[in-house]
Design goal:
Elements (H helix, E strand, L loop, with lengths): L1 H23 L4 H5 L1 E2 L10 H4 L10 H21 L1 H34 L8 H9 L7 H8 L1 E2 L3 H14 L4 E3 L6 E3 H18 L7 H20 L11
Antiparallel strand pairs: 1-2, 3-4
């Protein structure tokens, strides 16, 4: 399908370009186009869009699994939704994921700051912020924002695709490693959601933007329910 194919090509090209430009010392595309915290000086509103075409340049795993999922589920979903609506859905889920990630950062940055700075017992985030503002911390708040809050990847949009797949083909059986038995798509999606919520709340695997994944799923379910409600996604076509 054309949109899925073009998204795959763009993501791979951007991943390769990031590696080439970094090694050549030209520009760090990951830092330039990745999503920064909105209070950081390096933040640009365009990053809400561009970040979803960037991937971790230190390895192959991140881009491979995202693109494999996009190819596996996106092609079928594009046939169902049509190319234009599929592209709108994909981009919207990615932006929705970015907005949720920004919200999580806004709610948690003071706790992250407090946990990242070693000091006397009982020192609060407010104490650290005061020390930063008075020039006693050795770094500025903007440096903290720029260095500690950055996310890249198509995962939010891909999780939106998984959500749509589970809603449109809920009883389709799938084999998922390491389970030796088939799992219905609806349970797969529910399981992914629960796992991401657990990791997000517990702080496990903190280098992964779990709440952004949930944000992509939230944006996806809103759109699917809306299209069902207004009749543009018919229940009579066997997808449900």
């Amino acid at each position: 399908m054309p949109v899925t194919r073009h998204l795959l090509i763009i993501n791979v090209i951007m991943w390769l370009a990031t590696i080439v430009f970094q090694r050549a010392g030209i520009v760090d595309l990951q830092r330039w186009l990745g999503l920064h915290f909105w209070q950081a000086s390096e933040f640009n509103p365009a990053q809400l869009f561009t970040y979803m075409f960037m991937h971790d340049s230190s390895g192959f795993t991140h881009v491979f699994f995202n693109m494999f999922s996009l190819w596996m589920f996106g092609s079928l979903l594009e046939r169902v939704l049509g190319s234009k609506r599929f592209l709108f859905y994909y981009i919207s889920c990615g932006i929705g994921a970015a907005l949720v990630q920004e919200l999580v950062w806004q709610l948690s940055w003071q706790n992250i700051l407090a946990s990242s700075v070693t000091g006397p017992v009982g020192v609060t985030a407010s104490d650290i912020i005061k020390a930063i503002n008075e020039g006693h911390a050795g770094f500025t708040l903007d440096e903290f924002f720029n260095d500690c809050f950055l996310t890249v990847g198509a995962s939010g949009a891909v999780f939106g695709i998984l959500l749509a797949f589970g809603m449109l083909f809920p009883n389709m059986s799938m084999y998922i490693i390491p389970f030796p038995f088939p799992i219905k798509a609806k349970w797969m999606v529910l399981g992914y959601g629960v796992v991401e919520l657990f990791f997000g709340i517990s702080g496990a695997m903190s280098n992964v933007a779990h709440f952004a994944h949930l944000g992509g799923m939230i944006a996806g379910i809103i759109m699917i329910l809306y299209w069902r409600h207004n009749g543009t996604l018919s229940r009579g076509n066997g997808y449900y």
